[in-house]
Design goal:
Blueprint lengths: L19 H8 L6 E5 L5 H10 L4 E6 L2 H14 L4 E5 L13 E7 L2 H6 L3 H11 E12 L16 H10 L2 E8 L4 E8 L2
Parallel strand pairs: 1-2, 1-4, 2-3, 4-5
Antiparallel strand pairs: 5-7, 6-7
Helix pairs in contact: 1-2
The structure holds S-adenosylmethionine.
The site of S-adenosylmethionine (SAM) has 20 residues, from loops.
Length: 192
């Protein structure tokens, strides 16, 4: 692993400790919505989102790691899911999504890596471009505590770090909540 990839945690999933249902319930995701799972990993949040949005809705599962996207595509095929589009995409580059096209976006356990690599601006400008006005964007991060699960303590970010990132890019914070023994979530709404 190169230094550049040092905090990217390719292939790691929080599935065993973080409930996708709890995260999605906090975002208010509903039938017919278009959902973005940014840095989806094995796609376990996307799979639950796909059953919430239903056939009138759509889920975009994006990750830079091809093996993860292959895993998502395999599950999509095996389960006969028709509303998930899984694509290899680098969140620091232009995303393969239209302007103002996403009702609800989630980025779980990824942002601390962009903070460590000084890539927040590129990422958040794209997130802002693709989320609809008044759309929801939620960041989930590992709590800034010493724990065996998750990234090293030094690269963990606090709820106030996350809130200030969101505010800086035009998202108004709605709620900061505990969502697992290891994770917190900050939900926000895109404002003009
Ligand atoms: C710790 S995993 C979290 C995966 C999933 N969101 C979860 O909570 O289980 C971080 C994910 O972010 C992805 N990632 C890191 N940098 C990325 C980038 N620049 N663009 C897209 N995905 C990225 C990694 O490949 C990895 O799948």
């Amino acid at each position: 692993m190169s230094d550049k990839q040092g905090h990217k945690h390719h292939g790691k999933s929080s599935k065993d400790v973080l409930s996708a249902e709890t995260v999605l319930e906090k975002t208010g995701l509903k039938v017919g919505d278009t959902f973005l799972d940014a840095g989806c990993g094995d796609g376990y949040i996307s799979i639950v989102a796909s059953s919430i949005v239903g056939k009138e809705g759509k889920v975009h599962a994006l990750d830079v790691y091809e093996e993860s996207i292959d895993k998502v595509k395999k599950q999509v095929q095996d389960k006969g899911i028709t509303n998930i589009e899984a694509k290899v995409a680098d969140l620091t580059q232009k995303l393969p999504l239209k302007d103002n096209s996403i009702d609800v976006g989630v980025m779980a356990n990824v942002m601390h890596g962009f903070v460590a690599e000084d890539e927040v601006e590129e990422v958040m400008n794209e997130i802002r471009r693709v989320i609809k006005p008044e759309g929801i964007f939620a960041l989930v991060e590992f709590k800034k505590i010493e724990s065996v699960r998750g990234p090293p303590f030094e690269v963990r970010i606090s709820p106030s770090d996350v809130e200030s990132i969101l505010n800086q890019y035009g998202f108004e914070v709605l709620e900061t909540a505990d969502v697992s023994p290891y994770h917190y979530l900050v939900s926000s709404i895109k404002k003009d």
